[in-house]
Write a structure and sequence with these properties.
Oligomer: single chain
Distance between the termini: 84 Å
Strand content: 15-25%
CATH topology of the largest domain: Ribonucleotide Reductase Protein R1, domain 1
Number of strands: 9
CATH class of the largest domain: Mainly Alpha
Shape: elongated
Number of helices: 9
Structural class: alpha/beta
Mean pLDDT: 91
Radius of gyration: 30 Å
Number of domains: 2
Strand order of the largest sheet: 1-2-7-8-9
Order of helices and strands: HEEEHHHHEEHHHHEEEE
Length: 316
């Protein structure tokens, strides 16, 4: 009898442990199903918010294009005191807010101008870019390296060039683009260029079709002064430059002629302008906890038509 009672107690113990294990497994399964369902719900909400943000951003892009069309009709110059240059403050939308800004891309040094139309290095542009690098306390050797990044040949620029032989030694190995730069962020592909140099140079450079002129009315003082050796007329007093641009184009072509002299001006006037055809639009859309960023390069024709020719999301 004792042995039989001990056996029955042992059976009840096993049944109890089995029941506890089944409850534990059922609990784990229920929690896992609930957690996966929550993740799917959050993922769906985020994707929906991103889709919604994209559509709102396209609407803001169309709004910016309309502003540029009106500006072309009403003004013969483009300067930072005009309506298009005023950032859009946070505007409420359904479930979030919208912000945006337009920047004149022709007010920056065009990296693709480092090459002439025949694919060879452009000495005046190269000299200007080297002076910009010097003013920013960056090494001038990057000018030759960028020339080799965009030219079609495999011959390193003397003395600071870099062609495939340099990039194939990187990890992982890669080759030079051998084509015009489409985004300034390509500079991060240069060996050892680094984020710090990129952030220093980024506000002063752009990537536009080769031969696009520089808009004096919006260019930073450093970029304007770099047009000619030894000129520091526009980069020493940035507040004065900003004040002068509040209600007019400054410097205009005549102002620059007076600063650099007629001989120097004659050598650069074909590369200069007082109006622009390329503008960068940045739109931030926040819906709930999701933020969507749209970068657009807008091209405005002489007839005033505006269309996006390049878009990117999240990073420019």
């Amino acid at each position: 009898m004792i042995a039989r009672g001990s056996f029955r107690r042992r059976e009840r113990g096993v049944a109890l442990i089995t029941a506890v294990l089944m409850v534990a497994l059922a609990t784990i399964l229920a929690v896992n199903v609930g957690f996966r369902g929550y993740l799917e719900q959050r993922r769906s909400m985020t994707l929906f918010a991103l889709d919604q943000g994209y559509e709102v951003a396209l609407g803001a892009e169309a709004w910016a294009a309309d502003i540029l069309r009106n500006d072309k009709r009403d003004s013969k110059t483009d300067y930072t005191g005009e309506i298009w240059a005023t950032p859009i403050p946070p505007l409420p939308i359904d479930g979030g807010e919208l912000e945006g800004r337009l920047e004149d891309q022709q007010g920056r040094f065009n990296l693709n101008n480092l090459l002439r139309e025949d694919g060879k290095a452009n000495p005046p542009a190269l000299a200007q870019f080297e002076r910009i690098l010097t003013a920013l306390n960056l090494e001038t050797r990057w000018a030759g390296i960028i020339v080799d990044w965009i030219d079609a040949d495999a011959n390193p620029t003397f003395p600071d060039g870099a062609e495939d032989s340099v990039y194939l030694g990187e990890s992982p190995p890669y080759r030079t683009a051998n084509m015009p730069i489409t985004r300034v962020s390509e500079l991060l592909s240069l060996p050892d260029f680094g984020l710090e140099r990129y952030q220093t140079l980024r506000p002063y450079v752009t990537a536009l079709p080769s031969g696009t002129p520089l808009n004096l009315c919006t260019a930073p003082g450093i970029v304007i002064d770099a047009l000619s050796e030894g000129v520091q007329s526009f980069s020493t007093d940035l507040k004065h430059l900003a004040d002068m641009r509040a209600d007019k184009c400054f410097p205009n072509l005549n102002d620059l002629r007076a600063a650099v002299g007629q001989a120097a001006f004659d050598g650069m006037k074909d590369r200069l302008s007082e109006q622009s055809s390329y503008f960068g639009a940045t739109v931030w859309v926040t819906i709930g906890t999701t933020q969507f960023t749209l970068y657009s390069l807008l091209h405005r024709t002489d007839a005033g038509l505006v269309r996006p020719i390049l878009r990117s999301f999240g990073t420019d």
